[in-house]
Design brief:
The complex is a heterodimer of chains A (about 240) and B (about 450).
Chain A lengths: L17 H14 L8 H18 L6 H4 L10 H7 L17 H22 L4 H6 L22 H8 L1 H10 L33 E2 L6 E2 L2 H10 L7
Antiparallel strand pairs in A: 1-2
Helix pairs in contact in A: 2-5, 4-5
Chain B lengths: L3 E7 L3 E6 L7 E4 L2 E4 L4 E4 L12 E4 L2 E2 L2 E2 L2 H12 L11 E7 L5 H15 L3 E6 H5 L21 E7 L4 E7 L2 E2 L5 E3 L3 H15 L7 H11 L6 H7 L11 E5 L9 E2 L20 H13 L13 H5 L6 E5 L2 H4 L2 H4 L11 H10 L3 H8 L2 E4 L8 H12 L8 E3 L6 H11 L4 H7 L1 E2 H7 L1 H10 L2
Parallel strand pairs in B: 1-9, 9-10, 11-18, 18-19
Antiparallel strand pairs in B: 1-2, 2-3, 4-5, 4-6, 7-8, 10-20, 11-12, 12-13, 12-14, 15-16, 15-17
Helix pairs in contact in B: 2-17, 4-5, 11-13
Classes of the chains: A mainly alpha (about 240), B alpha+beta (about 450).
Subunit structure (chain B): Component of the SWR1 chromatin remodeling complex.
Subcellular location (chain B): Cytoplasm, Cytoskeleton; Nucleus
Main location (chain B): cytoplasm
């Protein structure tokens, strides 16, 4: 009777699926739009402060899922950038707005921004604009007695919604009229040439891809560096 | 009414401003509020020039993705500018010529109007996009030609404005932008700096907090390559054979305020010890652009690597940043945004796409009058690369000419100055203006219609 060697209960090596890789790419592109860098250890402190403030204000709990209703944010989230500086909307979720999906854009994004607004308003008392002015068009008077202009610090997505351009473009396309060019339609489309791949470690030609996370490398040395340092580092 | 005209090119990174009637060149300062962790002080706009330590600067920008969203930040910067702290400016007796982003959102545009008239009380003002300002320059001069006599402005041109937030391609016909031909690539100076920060932080030193410093490194070391794959191979060689490799000495902010490229000859050094930060070194920029155009390899202009003595002498106090293929792969994103995974075409393709959507009869003229403006156009080798790439994909029956001014950064401002001062444009300028009285009566709609239709 032969004894089969006991198979160790090793978990299958984690491999990122294409959806996760796309998420990672989107997050990376968003982070390139940031004004300031926020380190990971500050993230927890900020979330704690914001959560405390939020619970004081109402039944909104800033859990990770609440911050990210569409499930687009991995841990090192651009949402943090918004809360830290008190500059809500410094990092807009950098989705390329397509006129064909107005519903998704307004629904998902502004909801998230709303929650961030409330959190930030509490956490940053010096930031008087975000909490109270939100969705208001109050008109205070200035020293001259003229109407003082409202100084909104609205996130870009909200401004885009309010401009009515998404709806306007959508309608014009529906009715097959000539679309009046605007900020959204001027966005350049994709290139006809294929993507060039570079090694994520040294920058030379990235011929090979990591099996697990999909980042590129050029030779064995770079592969070793990649595995030691940042394979799968930014994933849950 | 002796109203002075104040011309303000209100960009996302910097404000270029100056009075139209003065002969002095425009002045620049950063359009943001920065907080220095080291000095624990906040600097509004131009106060940054008084800052001693640029490490760990925290930025608050009024612009977000190129559109003005944070008005409280912008107002603070404008307060310093318009309330006479920087230049003697009396808003009630001043005509303001201010720039706005291309295809600005209508609700943002009304806020511009509100602020200018109701908050500051300017006498009159007009708002136009930076490329429109640039159109008032003598564009044929960029190609070594004179303006056709009798004409005050070229019939058509394509302006490529590559700035901090994004890059726009705008074809113009008789001074007005052809709206269907406008294209926007979401790659700008900010993205390039952030990308460079990430690469450096991974490969060499962690500089994720040092936006200001990495911006300086980018401006000192980066260039646009004309032979991309060849130069990438050169970078793999040993330091002796690798002409592209550069060492950038990082400043330590105690003895030295700015970093510099090691081994660079004195005239080409961007930073000199103790020099005031924030000043544009126009002579250096001019020299580099002119030289880079005439030589084959743009990278050899930035610091001679022949002086071996400098390289081998290790100075223990110095922190040295190695710049190898980052020097040209970072600006490459302008030409191929797909390099970092962005699903957009680069500048040459966008130019072709933009011109193809215009009337067939003027396409030839448009290809022959491409102008590059904006901060990113200062990268050495930019013009040559755009010309080569565009020539490759443009239809062969058209001539391709790409022009760039010695100072692409201030080209728009100079165009606006011509508009405000020269007699040939006087009636046009007057037709564009909206006075405060008119605004108070009719409101923002008047501004919108007048600025859009006027030429």
């Amino acid at each position: 009777m032969s004894r089969k060697p006991e198979r160790g209960t090793k978990a299958a090596p984690k491999v990122l699926d294409p959806e996760a890789r796309r998420r990672q790419l989107r997050h990376h592109l968003d982070s390139l739009e940031r004004d300031n860098f926020v380190a990971l250890n500050e993230y927890e402190a900020i979330i704690a402060t914001a959560a405390a403030a939020a619970t004081a204000q109402g039944p909104i709990s800033l859990t990770h899922t609440n911050l990210d209703p569409l499930g687009l944010l991995p841990p090192l989230s651009p949402a943090v950038g918004s809360i830290v500086g008190g500059v809500v909307g410094t990092v807009g979720p950098g989705a390329v707005l397509s006129p064909n999906n107005p519903g998704i854009i307004s629904g998902g994004r502004t909801k998230k921004n709303q929650q961030l607004n409330i959190g930030a308003g509490g956490a940053n008392s010096s930031n008087s604009n975000s909490g109270s002015n939100f969705n208001q068009t109050a008109i205070p008077t200035s020293a001259h007695g003229h109407r003082k202009p409202v100084l909104p610090r609205k996130p870009l997505n909200q401004l885009l919604d309010e401009s009515g351009l998404v709806a306007q473009t959508f309608l014009q396309e529906q009715q097959q009229q000539d679309v009046v060019p605007n900020y959204l339609t001027a966005n350049m489309g994709p290139s006809r040439y294929p993507q060039r791949n570079f090694c994520s470690v040294c920058g030379w030609k990235g011929v090979y891809r990591c099996n697990r996370c999909g980042m590129r490398y050029c030779d064995l040395r770079c592969q070793k560096t990649h595995n030691d340092t940042r394979c799968m580092k930014f994933t849950i | 009414m002796a109203a002075r005209t104040l011309i303000v090119d209100n960009g996302a990174a910097t404000i270029k401003f100056g009075f139209a009637d003065e002969d002095t060149p425009y002045k620049t300062f950063a359009n943001n509020i920065t907080r220095s962790k080291a000095e624990r002080k906040t600097f509004v706009g131009d106060q940054l020039e008084t800052c001693k330590d640029f490490s760990g600067l925290y930025y608050r920008l009024p612009f977000e993705k190129g559109l003005l969203t944070s008005w409280d930040v912008e107002k603070q910067v404008w307060d310093r500018l318009f309330n006479g702290k920087i230049v003697p400016c009396e808003p009630s007796a001043t005509t303001l010529l201010i720039s706005e982003p291309i295809l600005n959102l209508p609700n943002i545009a009304t806020t511009y109007d509100q602020l200018v008239f109701e908050e500051y009380g300017f006498h009159s003002y007009t708002r136009m996009s930076a490329p429109q300002m640039a159109m008032y320059n003598e564009i044929p001069r960029l190609y070594g030609q004179k303006m056709t006599s009798g004409k005050k402005r070229v019939d058509c041109a394509v302006i490529v404005d590559s700035g901090y937030s994004f890059t726009h391609i705008i074809p113009f016909w008789k001074g007005k932008p052809i709206l269907v031909g406008i294209r926007r690539i979401n790659v700008g100076g900010k993205l390039l700096t952030n990308h460079l920060k990430e690469i450096i932080s991974f490969r060499y030193w962690n500089m994720m907090d040092e936006t200001y410093l990495v911006n300086e490194v980018k401006e000192a070391c980066c260039y646009v390559s004309n032979k991309f794959w060849d130069e990438l191979d050169i970078c793999k060689k040993s330091p002796r054979a690798n002409k592209i490799l550069q060492h950038y000495v990082l400043p330590d902010y105690s003895s030295q305020q700015r970093g510099y490229v090691k081994g660079g000859s004195k005239s080409k050094q961007r930073g000199k010890k103790g020099k005031g930060p924030g000043k544009m070194d126009l002579d250096d920029i001019e020299a580099e652009i002119n030289e880079a155009d005439s030589e084959d390899e743009a990278y050899s202009d930035q610091g001679d690597n022949d002086s071996d003595e400098d390289m081998s002498e290790p100075n223990e106090d110095e922190q040295v940043l190695t710049m190898n293929n980052e020097r040209f792969t970072v600006p490459e994103i302008l030409f191929n945004p797909s390099d970092i995974g962005m699903d957009q075409a680069g500048i040459p393709e966008a130019i072709v796409d933009a011109i193809s959507s215009c009337d067939e009869e003027i396409q030839g003229m448009l290809y022959a009058n491409v102008v590059l403006i904006g901060g990113n156009a200062r990268l050495p080798g930019f013009r040559k690369r755009v010309t080569n790439d565009l020539r490759e994909i443009a239809p062969s029956e058209y001539d391709v000419r790409v022009g760039i001014d010695k100072d692409p950064f201030g080209y728009a401002w100079k165009g606006a100055k011509r508009l405000a001062t020269m007699d040939e444009f006087a009636s046009e300028f007057k037709n564009r203006l909206v006075t405060r009285a008119e605004y108070m009566e009719t409101g923002s709609a008047l501004c919108e219609s007048r600025f859009r239709s006027a030429v």
